[in-house]
Amino acid sequence: MQQNPEQLQSLADRINTGLDNPETSRALVVFNQTDQSQSGTAVFRASMSWPLNLPFPPVAVTNGEGNLVPALVGGMSEAPDPKGRATHALLSLALRFDVANIPPSGWRTYYAAYDENASPPLENDAENADLAVVETTRHGGDLPPTGNF
């Protein structure tokens, strides 16, 4: 059953994505909308205002057990800051990361944080198009971190 982006966001907002470090890490809920378990490379695309004088820091992605997974930040581009600040730019990027055993018609939660101990490099960055990634804050919820819909 295909879900639209708004439905996936609503579902992600109900998932228990953990309560520790809500300000320093984000939960990335990876959805599999097929009837077979999926593994491979998930891609989270993001845009954010970023100070021009700061280099983009390393990113660590961990699975639900807290283990680092291979990841790669790429596809970076800059555009004028939406607020018109000369000291910032709108930075767009693609965070690619390894995922494993996303249940059929289900989800699994991963975590991303700026961290000097960046994830190991991603060897195969070909996107698995059957996976959709939704960002949410880390929060308690009424659905488990991994499940089916």
Tell me about this structure:
The protein has one helix at residues 5-12, and strands at 25-32, 38-51, 59-62, 71-80, 88-102, 106-114, 131-136, 146-148. With 149 residues, the protein is mainly β. The chain has a single domain (5-138), classed as Immunoglobulin-like, CATH 2.60.40. The longest helix is centred in the N-terminal third of the chain and has 8 residues, at 5-12.
Secondary structure layout plus pairing:
Elements: H1 5-12, E1 25-32, E2 38-51, E3 59-62, E4 71-80, E5 88-102, E6 106-114, E7 131-136, E8 146-148
Antiparallel strand pairs: 1-6, 1-7, 2-5, 3-6, 4-5, 6-8
CATH superfamily: Golgi alpha-mannosidase II
Strand-residue fraction?
over 45%
CATH topological fold name: Immunoglobulin-like
In total, how many domains does the architecture comprise? 1
N-to-C SSE string, H for helix and E for strand: HEEEEEEEE
CATH architecture: Sandwich
Category from helices, strands and their pairing? mainly beta
Q: Summarize model confidence as the mean pLDDT.
A: 92
The total count of helices amounts to 1
Radius of gyration, Cα only, in angstroms?
Answer: 15 Å
Shape, principal axes of CA atoms: globular
Write down how many β-strands occur, each being a DSSP E stretch of 2 or more residues. Answer: 8
